[in-house]
C-alpha cells in the first residue's frame, strides 16, 4: 500500500506553514519581503523566446509592497521554459512527467562497487513507519535501539536545552551563548560542516525536500543536460514516492538525509533528533539498500547538540554557502509556491549568488528545492540553463563529488573508511566532538533527555572502529 498523491498534497500545507515559521527566523534580513507577501500574479516580466541564447531581464512591475526593481539578466534560458508570468502561487498544477525509467527490483547499481541489489519498493509498507510529517515517537523499539547505539559511541552530547520555537528573537540566551555554535542565529559552523566545494567555480548542486510529484520533471532535465545532483530527501516523502527515489539513485544522483518530518532540529530533544534521523536513514536503506552518510538540517537549523547527535549517527552536516549575514546562497525558491516571494526575486537572488560565487577562491553550494512545481520550473527553465551558459564555465557536481570523493563514499555501507573517515571519527579527530569512556555523569545531556554518555561493551567495539579511522596525531589527543 502506498500513500496516494492526494494524501501528500493534503499534508503539504501543514509543512509549508511550519517551514515558513522556521524561515521567519532563519533569514531575518528578508523580513521586509515576508511582511509583504507577494501575490505573485501581479508581477510581469519579459517572456523567454524560443532560443537557448535568449536573455531574460527582470522588468517586474510589482505591487507597492514588493521589491520593485530587479536587475537580473540571464545568459540563457530553456526554450521550453514556463514563462515567468506564469510561475507564481496561483498557477494551476501542470501535468507531471512520468519517470524516464522505473527501477527493477534486484538491479545491482554498477556505479558503486559492492552496492547491494535494489530492494523491491512495492513491498514498502507505510504501516511499519511513523506517521508522515510528524516528529516520530521516541518510545518505539527502533528509536530505543538507535538511542542505545548513540549512547554506545560514548559521544559527549552538549547539555544545553533545546531552543524554543520562534527563532533568534525568542531565544536571546541561546543566541548569546556562542558556545552552542547555532548556525541559525549568526551562521556559526564547525570545521566538519560541509559549506562549500574546495575548487573555485565548482557548484555542489543540491535539491531538498523531495522526492515529490515534480521531481520527475527535474530528473528529466538533469538527464538531458547530463547533470548529477545531490538530493536531501525527507523520509516522509520517501514513503510517498519510493519509486522516484530509486530512479534518482539509479540515475547516479547522490541521496542524502533531510530528516523524517522537516522540523527545526534545535527545538527537539536528543531522543527526537535521533528519531528524526534514524527513521530517515532506515527508510532510505529500505528503499535503496544503502544508507547516506551526509545530512542537511532543515532550515539549516543546527547547533553543537544537533551536530554531535548527527555525527554519532554517522551523518556529516552539509549546509549551503554563507559568506555574510546578507549573502547566504539561498535562492528562496521554496517560497514562490506560498506566494511569499516572486520568481523575479528568486532570479535576482540567483544573480547575486552568481556575482559572489565567481569572485570566491573556492566553490559553492546553493539551497534549492524539488518539492513544488514552481521551484522545479525556475530551476529547469532559468537557473540551470543560465548556469550551463556561464562564462567562465562552472563544474556542476553532486556534493560528494565536488568534495573529490566517489559516489561510494556517500553511503555508510560502501564508504572507503580509510580515505574518508566516518562522520564520528572525523569529528573526533577534528576536535568537534569528544567521546568518553567515563560513566554517565561525565557527559550529561539536556534535562529533558535520557540519552547520556554512558559507555558500555558495544561502545568499546565501536571505539575500536573510531580509533582505526584516526590519524596517529589525533589519536594521541584522544581524551582517554
Ligand atoms: C516563544 O517561546 C515560547 C516558549 O518559551 C512559546 O510559547 C512561544 O510560542 C514562542 N514564540 C514564538 C513566536 O514562537
Ligand atoms: C553578493 O550578494 C549580496 C547579497 O545578495 C549582493 O548584495 C551583492 O551584490 C553580491 N555581490 C556580487 C559581486 O554580486
Ligand atoms: C566502513 O565502515 C562501515 C561501518 O561504519 C561498514 O559498514 C562498511 O562496510 C565499511 N566500508 C568498507 C568499504 O568496508
Ligand atoms: C552531570 O550531572 C550530575 C548530576 O545531575 C552532576 O553532579 C555532574 O556534575 C554533571 N556532570 C557534568 C560534566 O556536567
Ligand atoms: Zn528542507
TrEMBL record:
Record-level GO BP terms: cell wall organization; chitin catabolic process; fungal-type cell wall biogenesis; polysaccharide catabolic process
Signal peptide positions on this chain: 1-18
Keyword Signal part of the UniProt annotation: yes
Chief subcellular location: membrane
Alphabetical list of InterPro entries matching this protein: Glyco_hydro/deAcase_b/a-brl, NODB_dom, Polysacc_deacetylase_ArnD
Disordered: region residues: 31-57
Catalytic reactions of this protein: [(1->4)-N-acetyl-beta-D-glucosaminyl](n) + n H2O = chitosan + n acetate
Keyword annotations from UniProtKB, A to Z: Carbohydrate metabolism, Cell membrane, Cell wall, Cell wall biogenesis/degradation, Chitin degradation, Cobalt, Glycoprotein, GPI-anchor, Hydrolase, Lipoprotein, Membrane, Metal-binding, Polysaccharide degradation, Secreted, Signal, Transmembrane, Transmembrane helix
Localization in the cell: Cell membrane; Secreted, Cell wall
Membrane spanning stretches: 459-478
The organism's place on the tree of life at top rank: Eukaryota
Domain (NodB homology) ranges: 201-397
Bias (Low complexity) ranges: 37-57
A cellular component annotation (GO) from this entry: plasma membrane
Family to which this protein belongs: Belongs to the polysaccharide deacetylase family.
PANTHER family registered for this protein in UniProt: CHITIN DEACETYLASE 1-RELATED, GLYCOSYL TRANSFERASE-RELATED
Name of the protein in its database record: chitin deacetylase
Amino acid at each position: 500500500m502506498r500513500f496516494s498523491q492526494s494524501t501528500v498534497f493534503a499534508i503539504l500545507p501543514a509543512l509549508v506553514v511550519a517551514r515558513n515559521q522556521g524561515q521567519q527566523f532563519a533569514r531575518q534580513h528578508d523580513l521586509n519581503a515576508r511582511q509583504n507577501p507577494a501575490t505573485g500574479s501581479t508581477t510581469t516580466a519579459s517572456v523567454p523566446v524560443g532560443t537557448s541564447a535568449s536573455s531574460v531581464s527582470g522588468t517586474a512591475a510589482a505591487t507597492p509592497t514588493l521589491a520593485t526593481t530587479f536587475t537580473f539578466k540571464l545568459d540563457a534560458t530553456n526554450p521550453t521554459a514556463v514563462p515567468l508570468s506564469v510561475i507564481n502561487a496561483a498557477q494551476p498544477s501542470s501535468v507531471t512527467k512520468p519517470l524516464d525509467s522505473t527501477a527493477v527490483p534486484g538491479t545491482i547499481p554498477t556505479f558503486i562497487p559492492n552496492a547491494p541489489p535494489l530492494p523491491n519498493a512495492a513491498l514498502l509498507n507505510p504501516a511499519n513507519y511513523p506517521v508522515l510529517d510528524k516528529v516520530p515517537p521516541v518510545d518505539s523499539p527502533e528509536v530505543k535501539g538507535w538511542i542505545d547505539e548513540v549512547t554506545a559511541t560514548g559521544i559527549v552530547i552538549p547539555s544545553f536545552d533545546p531552543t524554543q520555537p520562534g527563532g533568534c528573537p525568542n531565544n536571546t540566551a541561546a543566541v548569546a551563548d556562542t558556545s552552542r555554535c547555532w548556525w541559525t542565529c549568526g551562521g556559526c559552523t564547525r570545521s566538519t560542516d560541509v559549506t562549500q566545494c574546495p575548487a573555485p567555480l565548482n557548484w555542489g548542486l543540491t535539491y531538498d525536500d523531495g522526492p515529490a510529484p515534480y521531481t520527475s520533471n527535474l530528473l528529466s532535465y538533469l538527464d538531458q543536460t547530463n547533470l548529477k545532483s545531490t538530493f536531501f530527501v525527507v523520509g516522509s516523502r520517501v514513503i510517498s514516492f519510493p519509486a522516484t527515489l530509486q530512479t534518482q539513485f539509479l540515475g547516479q544522483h547522490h541521496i542524502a538525509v533531510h530528516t523524517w518530518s522537516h522540523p527545526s532540529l534545535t527545538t527537539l530533544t536528543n531522543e527526537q533528533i535521533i528519531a528524526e534521523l534514524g527513521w530517515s536513514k532506515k527508510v532510505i536503506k529500505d528503499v535503496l539498500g544503502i544508507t547516506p552518510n551526509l545530512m542537511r538540517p532543515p532550515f539549516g537549523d543546527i547547533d553543537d547538540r544537533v551536530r554531535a547527535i548527527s555525527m554519532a549517527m554517522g551523518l556529516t552536516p552539509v549546509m549551503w554557502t554563507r559568506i555574510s549575514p546578507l549573502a547566504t546562497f539561498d535562492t528562496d525558491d521554496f517560497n514562490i509556491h506560498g506566494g511569499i516571494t516572486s520568481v523575479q526575486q528568486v532570479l535576482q537572488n540567483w544573480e547575486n549568488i552568481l556575482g559572489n560565487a565567481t569572485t570566491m577562491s573556492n566553490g559553492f553550494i546553493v539551497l534549492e528545492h524539488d518539492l513544488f512545481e514552481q521551484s522545479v520550473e525556475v530551476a529547469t527553465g532559468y537557473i540551470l540553463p543560465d548556469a550551463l551558459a556561464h562564462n567562465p564555465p562552472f563544474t556542476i557536481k553532486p556534493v560528494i563529488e565536488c568534495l573529490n570523493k566517489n559516489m561510494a563514499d556517500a553511503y555508510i555501507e560502501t564508504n572507503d573508511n580509510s580515505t574518508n573517515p566516518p562522520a564520528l571519527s572525523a569529528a573526533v579527530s577534528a576536535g568537534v566532538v569528544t567521546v568518553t569512556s567515563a560513566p554517565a555523569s561525565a557527559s550529561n545531556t539536556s534535562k529533558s533527555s535520557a540519552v547520556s554518555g554512558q559507555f558500555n561493551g558495544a561502545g568499546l567495539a565501536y571505539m575500536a572502529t573510531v580509533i582505526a579511522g584516526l590519524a596517529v596525531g589525533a589519536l594521541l589527543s584522544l581524551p582517554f
